[in-house]
Structures are given as C-alpha cells and as structure tokens.
Amino acid sequence: MKCLKLFLLIIFLGQSWQSDCQESDAYGLKRYFANVIPGIVLPTSQDGSLEQSIKAGLQVEIGNHFAFSKDKRFTGFVRLTWLRIGYNHLNIFNVYAAPAHVGLGIHYQYNNSASLNASLNGGIVLYTDGYVFDGFNGKSEYILYPQIKYNKDDFSVGIEYIFRPFGLGIFDLRDGIHYFGIVLGVSLGRNIN
Predict the structure, then answer these.
(1) What is the pTM assigned to this prediction?
(2) Which fold, 31-191?
(3) How many helices (H) and strands (E) does the chain have?
(4) Cβ atoms of residues 29 and 75 within 8 Å
C-alpha cells in the first residue's frame, strides 16, 4: 500500500515541466508558485502573561493553482500548498510546518503582464511550543489566513495575515499570535486560465 501511495504521489508531482513551461494564449495565472514571506509576529494575551513585543518571522511555501475557467480575465481558482515551513523568534526558535493547505481565490488579469490574486487558505499547522533545543514539545491546530498578491510577469508581491489562538476556548483576537507578512514570490509553469 505504501508503494502505491508513493507511486501516485510521484505521478501527481511529476507532471511534465517541459509542457508546463510552453507559452500559451491563456491569461496569466500560472500553474506553480513559490513564496518567501518575511514578517512580524505580535503575541498578545489578555492576562498579560506573554511579553508584548514584536518578533521576527520567516515562512516559505510552494504549491499549485487550479483555475475554474479558461481564457477569462476574471476567474476563481483552487490553491494547493504542498509545503509551508517557517519559524518565528518567540521562544528562541519556534518552528512550524504545514504539510498541505487548501485555499480558494479569485484572479483578475489587468493586462498581459499584470494581475491580482486574492485567496483564503487553511489547513493544519504543526508547531513547537517552547525551546526546541530543550526538547520537542509539538502541537497542531487548524488555521485560516487571507493572502493578496499583485503579480507582474513571473514575480509577485503581496501581504498576508495569520492569527493563531493560544487555546481552543472562545475566539478572541486579544489572546493569540498575529503574523503580518510580506509575500515575495515567483510563478512557474504554463498559464492555466
């Protein structure tokens, strides 16, 4: 069974890069994306138990777009993030990884080289909550995060916001971690809409 799963994964990820890199008459939503997301992390807590200072963070993500329609200036898409990893400097080295995230978004093509993407993404995130060098204290939870990007040819710049609550109680924006990131990315492959 493991061999079958591995075989199917290789087929899925092993799409022909040569055919995806050919030019087409379609608009500019590309098949693949890769982003680097530096940002700031602001921990907040109602009871004041956490330090209220801004920290640095860095994330990297790679994935695919799947368009709903072809040859349209305005289209919806599904965004599949294969891998998202990063760290923030809350407790010396707070590491997290997201094995797969799914998002829904809209793409608007201004002209042949400029477009705008907006998406709402979500999935499971695995993270360490404490000092990594003192032993692994892993946790997991579900997060949702919006992302908006302006694309110029194969490059993009945008913003994203992530809120990760500290507990599973009542949702309160004053009790969690806020991540404000600048999205710097590239798009690869063929145009799919």
Answers:
(1) 0.73
(2) Porin (2.40.160)
(3) 2, 9
(4) yes
Helix locations, the chain, DSSP H: 2-13, 17-20
∠ CA 37-192-17, nearest 5°, is 75
Bridge partners of 6, per DSSP, are: none
**Burial call 144-165: b when 16+ CB within 10 Å, e when fewer:** ebebebebeeeebebebebebe
pLDDT per position as a tens digit, 111-133: 888 999 999 998 887 776 554 44
Residue 129 DSSP label = -
| Contacts of residue 96, Cβ cutoff 8 Å, sequence gap at least 6 | 85, 86, 87, 125, 126, 127, 128
- Give yes or no for a contact between 61 and 80, defined as CB atoms under 8 angstroms apart: no
- Kindly list the distances between the CA atom of residue 37 and the CA atoms of 104, 133, 177, in Å, as whole numbers in the listed order: 19, 24, 16
Element (H or E) spanning 182, and its range?
Answer: strand 176-191
Domain locations in the chain as residue ranges: 31-191
Q: What is the pLDDT of residues 1-47, one digit of tens each?
A: 666 665 555 655 554 443 444 444 556 788 889 999 998 887 776 56
Helix, strand, or coil (residue 172):
coil
